Amino acid sequence: MCSHLFFRASFVLFFLFLPIWQRVEELAPDMEVADDSVYQKLFTVSGHQQLPPKFALRAISIRAQNMSKEEDS
Q: Rounded to the nearest 5°, which phi and psi values hold at 12?
């Protein structure tokens, strides 16, 4: 009985947050051409950067590329 209620609650929460994540994906720029400042503006909440997992690794990669470009110049 308890596990059934937990399943129902997580199912409802999933569908509550699904439209939010879809909207974030629509607002997110093309990951191949965007610099990391765009992601900081999109996903910064009260001074702490909150990236969804699928964007986090790409943002780290972009930062590393930007750092290496700064060192080269």
A: -65, -45
Residue 26 one-letter amino acid = E
- The pTM of the full predicted model, rounded to 2 decimals, is 0.29
Q: Are 38 and 53 in contact (CB under 8 A)?
A: no
b/e sequence 7-29, b meaning 16+ C-beta within 10 Å: eeeeeeeeeeeeeeeeeeeeebe
Length of the chain: 73
CA 38, CA 70: separation in Å to the nearest integer? 18
Per-residue confidence of the chain (73 residues) as pLDDT tens digits?
A: 566 666 677 766 666 666 666 666 666 655 555 555 655 555 555 555 565 666 777 777 888 888 887 777 6
